Amino acid sequence: MAKKKASSRNSNVASNEQQQQTAASYQKPAAELSREFSMEEDHDSSEEKFQNLKSLNAILLKQTVERRQQIETLPGEGVA
C-alpha cells in the first residue's frame, strides 16, 4: 500500500507541474498580446497628439498672420 500512496503522490505532482506549465504557456501569449495592444494604443494616442499639434499649429499660424496684417495697417508713427 505504501507504494500506491507514493505513486499517487508522484502522479499528483506530475499533474500539478503539467497544469502549471499549461497555465504558463497561456500567460505568455496573454502578456505578449497585452504588450502589443498597449503599443497600438500608444501609437493611436501618438497619432492623435500629432493631429492635435498640427491643428494647434495651424490656428497659431493663422492668428500670427492676422495680427501681422493688423500691425501693417496701423498708421506709421515713426516705426522703423
What tags apply to this protein structure?
1 helix, 0% strand, 80 residues
Number of strands: 0
**What share of residues are in beta strands?**
under 5%
Order of helices and strands: H
Shape descriptor reads: rod-shaped
Count of helical stretches: 1
The overall average pLDDT, rounded, is 76
Radius of gyration: 34 Å
* Residue runs with pLDDT of under 50 for 5 or more positions: none
Helix content: over 70%
Q: Note the main sheet.
A: none
Structural class: mainly alpha
State the end-to-end CA separation: 109 Å
Describe how the helices and strands are arranged.
Elements: H1 2-73
Biased composition (Polar residues): 8-25
Biased composition (Basic and acidic residues): 33-49
Region (Disordered): 1-49
What do you see in this structure?
By secondary structure, the chain is mainly alpha-helical. The protein has a domain at 24-70. Helix content is 90%, strand content 0%. The chain is built from one helix and no strands. The protein has one helix at 2-73. It is rod-shaped. Residues 33-49 have a biased composition (Basic and acidic residues).
Quick summary of this structure?
The chain is an all-alpha fold. It has one helix and no strands.
